[in-house]
Amino acid sequence: MDKSLVTVHPTTEANWHNKNVRTEGMLLRDYFAAKAMQARLSNPQWIASDERTALDAYQVADAMLRAREAS
Length: 71
Hints:
- It is a single chain.
- It is built from two helices and two strands.
- It is mainly alpha-helical and about 70 residues long.
- It has one domain.
- It has a two-stranded antiparallel ribbon with strand order 1-2.
């Protein structure tokens, strides 16, 4: 199983009140990237484009997934 495809707070039809909506939850990679981006943006010294910030966040997320796999 590809552990990068693990979801965070998975929601499925079984526990979602609207049967017309289906989601499998946020990917762990996206969760890690969101946390990394939040940390970068909370630093008033961080000055970069939105695109650079997003790319950096996913690079951090990928490093976190590699570290998770190695442990």
